[in-house]
């Protein structure tokens, strides 16, 4: 079994998101991918979200932040909701009509409001798309979390900020976690061609 990898190419990210829109539309799966890539949440935290975490029903608009206590670390975290996440959520929300309440899970399982989508089902959703799109091995639910950090790093986000976002003990841990490898280092040397 290989290590979970981030999705490093922008074209692959777009293909993954489009997979559940372009073929047989599944707006829930599309929103799962959009929010997963843009929030850096672990899949367990992502699946536990309810609409009240992201949407203000009284004001009929998306909140600026998701505020949750992470299951694994028990730390409170606040995550800004960006336009990529909002786009996926809004398309999905509109497809659901007027059936939503703040207490509804964003990603309901087979039995609706009785519980969220299971981790194994979320894994199958990501794997199905990755396999049909012929992605390399190592793509799973955790790839969504890693993809955010990898692309933040590529855009120049300070390593200390990424280490804080992921609650890692050091940047070396974060670097290994994000799959920053020799190819990435080579590209930097080739771009900084003095």
Give the topology, please.
Elements: H1 10-22, H2 27-39, H3 43-47, H4 51-54, E1 55-56, E2 61-62, E3 65-69, E4 76-80, H5 83-96, E5 108-109, E6 112-116, H6 119-132, H7 141-154, H8 159-166, H9 171-178, H10 182-191
Antiparallel strand pairs: 1-2, 3-4, 5-6
Give a verbal description of the structure.
The chain is mainly alpha-helical and about 190 residues long. Helix content is about 55%, strand content about 10%. A two-stranded antiparallel sheet has the order 1-2. The protein has a two-stranded antiparallel ribbon with strand order 3-4.
How many distinct beta strands? Answer: 6
Largest sheet, strands/sense/barrel: 2 strands, antiparallel
What is the residue-averaged pLDDT?
A: 89
Beta-strand content estimate:
5-15%
**Between the first and last Cα atoms, what is the distance in angstroms?**
41 Å
Relevant terms:
194 residues, 10 helices, two-stranded antiparallel sheet, 11% strand, globular, mainly alpha, single chain, two-stranded antiparallel ribbon
Summarize the structure.
This protein is mostly helical and 194 residues long. The protein contains 10 helices and 6 strands, in the order ααααββββαββααααα.
